[in-house]
Amino acid sequence: MTDKEDYLAKPSADCCLKGNLHEGEPRGKIETIAGVETYISAPQGKNNGNIVLYFPDVWGFFNNGFLVMDGFADAGYLTVGLDYFRGDPVWKYRKSRDDPAPGFDYEAWKKKHTAYANEVVPGWVEAVKAQFGKPTTKYACVGYCFGAPYVMDELARDIVTAGAFAHPAFLKEEHFRKANKPLFLSCAETDHTFPTEARNRAIDILREDKKHYNLQLFSGVEHGFALRCNMDKPYERYVKEESLRAIAEWFDFWLTQ
């Protein structure tokens, strides 16, 4: 395990254990792909024939994440997300909305699941392509918190055309150096995992290397805003929905070039 000082976006912290559950009925289905449980949400109206790969935050498979995947499906994308936590998300370890359960070893949990995710994600992506892709299919990827490094890994490979993350974690300078596809960064002005100095350094790297990127920066919200906001607060709801909308439009542009 590398020292936290080596990270631009630090490993998930206690702020990632907090959040609100959202109401709604997910419409997707769960299948096993490459040995990993996978949520699949198909477009119900417009269908652009392309695929979004979804990399979850530490809450894994939960209602909010399913509804966000349905949101990308509403934008026209077959959306698939994997449970690299194997039914062991952090929300199982909360004694209340804001507090982790006593005795929960968050560091051990992260180490175990990061090792597994690092191992299975590349093969899962290939399996999704083999099962759902056609010669004309294009791919985008999006990750939240824990999912951000898997977005960056894919942007350094050849399958996806563009990627995005919101309130990222576990990112190092090399992730930004190696990425060679367009990146959308959806960020909170206040984020202890990806603070201003680190965010500015990431943008400097992207600019120095002449990468295509877009930074979306919201004031008045914190880490988790795009997935676990309080939907009863109009501004928080707006920010969450605007993040998804803007990411989908980023994909729309790059996947039609």
UniProtKB/TrEMBL annotation:
Q: Which Pfam families match?
A: DLH
Q: Which GO terms describe its molecular function?
A: hydrolase activity
* InterPro entries to which the protein is assigned, alphabetical: AB_hydrolase_fold, Dienelactn_hydro
The residue ranges of the Dienelactone hydrolase domain are 37-252
Please name the Gene3D superfamilies in this protein's record.
alpha/beta hydrolase
Q: Which SUPFAM superfamilies match?
A: alpha/beta-Hydrolases
Which superkingdom does the taxonomy of this entry point to? Answer: Eukaryota
Family annotation (PANTHER family)? DIENELACTONE HYDROLASE, PROTEIN AIM2
Q: What is the designated name of this protein?
A: Dienelactone hydrolase domain-containing protein
Upper lineage ranks? Eukaryota, Fungi, Dikarya, Ascomycota, Pezizomycotina
